[in-house]
């Protein structure tokens, strides 16, 4: 009598001879297909566009500019990018102007207090030299007893100037001759003779250049970014009686 192979044993043998499937492959075979990324991108575009519209309406140019740029850079062919592109150049320019204005304002320093028995207010700004030891200060000063003065204050031995000397200056590249003189005190300063006219020109000037010669050094041009000057922080003083 022929022996028969049990059914369960036969099934096991067939399964063993079948191609095996690794656990990782099995997982891949049963995992659902990944959802498309487009809906998520569309949602981000819509959110950014809505935020840009809000900031534009509120004239928050510095906040709106980077958001608009991101949309245009990431999704250049989208409807959101097309809408934003119509105003982005103007928004970016306004944001840049605000940042520049803030930087220029921060260059000025204003002080008030008592000096030699009188009230004094000053407005000052350093020249644009990168090296601190080369910087020269432009100082506007009002004193209740001494009156108004404008002068350059440097380091070292001061400036070359005999009697009343003439300095070549440029107010936003508009040439101007400035009469100047050295103080009797021997300080490293150079006073501007027409202080009133000089201060009046500052209101409409962004960059001031003055050619000077410092003692023991060669001639050079001092550059002051004066566009952030605020006349309201340099008030008139009542003269001391």
UniProtKB/TrEMBL annotation:
Native organism: Dokdonella fugitiva
Protein name: Lipoprotein
Keyword Signal appears in the UniProt entry: yes
Keyword Signal set for record: yes
Cross-referenced PROSITE patterns: PROKAR_LIPOPROTEIN
Keyword list, A-Z: Signal
Top-rank taxon: Bacteria
Signal sequence extent: 1-26
């Amino acid at each position: 009598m022929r022996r028969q192979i049990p059914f369960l044993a036969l099934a096991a043998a067939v399964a063993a001879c079948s191609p095996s499937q690794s656990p990782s492959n099995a997982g891949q075979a049963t995992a659902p297909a990944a959802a498309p990324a487009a809906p998520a991108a569309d949602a981000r575009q819509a959110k950014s566009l809505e935020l840009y519209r809000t900031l534009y309406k509120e004239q928050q140019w510095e906040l709106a500019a980077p958001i608009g740029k991101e949309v245009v850079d990431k999704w250049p062919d989208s409807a959101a990018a097309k809408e934003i592109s119509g105003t982005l150049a103007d928004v970016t320019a306004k944001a840049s102007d605000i940042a520049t204005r803030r930087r220029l304002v921060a260059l000025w320093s204003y002080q008030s207090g008592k000096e030699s028995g009188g009230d004094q207010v000053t407005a000052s700004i350093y020249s644009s030299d990168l090296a601190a030891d080369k910087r020269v200060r432009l100082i506007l000063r009002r004193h209740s007893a001494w009156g108004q003065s404008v002068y350059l204050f440097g380091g070292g031995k001061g400036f070359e100037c005999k009697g009343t000397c003439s300095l070549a200056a440029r107010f936003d590249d508009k040439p101007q001759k400035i009469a100047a003189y050295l103080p009797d005190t021997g300080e490293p300063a150079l006073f501007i003779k027409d202080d009133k006219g000089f201060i009046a020109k500052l209101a409409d000037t962004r960059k001031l250049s003055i050619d000077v010669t410092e003692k023991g050094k060669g001639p050079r041009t001092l550059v002051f970014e004066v566009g952030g000057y605020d006349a309201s922080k340099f008030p008139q003083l009542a003269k001391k009686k």
